[in-house]
Structure formats: C-alpha cells, structure tokens
Amino acid sequence: MADPKGRGKGLGLPASFTFILGLAEVVGGLLVLAGFFTYVGALLLIVVMLGAIYFKVFVWKTGIYGSNNNGWYYDALLLAASGVLLTIGAGAISLDALIQ
Q1: pLDDT value at position 50?
Q2: pLDDT at residue 70 above 90?
C-alpha cells in the first residue's frame, strides 16, 4: 500500500485496484488475527491468494519454488490455511465465539 502506482504498473493493473487489493489483504489478516468475522477475513485472503497464484503461475511463469525462493508454494500454503479457517471457523477462543 506504500506505492500503489508502482505496484499496479508492475502487475498491469490500475493503482486504485492495487490499493483495494492491499486493503483487502490487511483487513483480512486483521480479521483472522482477531478471530472476528473470521469467515469474511478468510474469504478475502482466499481471493488475494488465488490472484497471487494466478499471476505467479500463468503470467510470470514461476515454478512452485521459483528462483531465489520467489515461487508460489507459500501462497498455496496460505490459501490452504485460509480454506481451513473458512470451513471450520476461528474456534473456541475467538471474538466470534464470545459474540455467539
């Protein structure tokens, strides 16, 4: 979110979209961290990770480990973790559990 114009140029996307993308990543991470609206946070992170994997695999043609560890294995791990949170929720020790 520090340089949305430069980031957008590198991705071939408008600066406003990259700002929204960064905001979704931060908000999703904070929601998951707090255990508040965990399903929404996990869904936001799933969308972000699917986009990251798409760019790394199909646009930049990066392998799973890539060169200099810039592959998409970490993105796939975060996608799987977000999928688990989306299916089972935050758990007993979370703000979601306190609200219910």
Answers
A1: 97
A2: no
Quick one: three-class SS letters along the chain? CCCHHHHHHHHCCCHHHHHHHHHHHHHHHHHHHHCCCHHHHHHHHHHHHHHHHHHHHHHCCCCCCCCCCCCCHHHHHHHHHHHHHHHHCCCCCCHHHHHC
How many beta carbons lie within 10 A of that of residue 77, not counting itself? Answer: 11
pTM for the model? 0.88
Confidence of residue 1 (pLDDT cuts 50, 70, 90): low
Whether the Cβ atoms of residue 57 and residue 40 lie closer than 8 Å to each other: no
* Cα–Cα dist 63/71, whole Å: 6
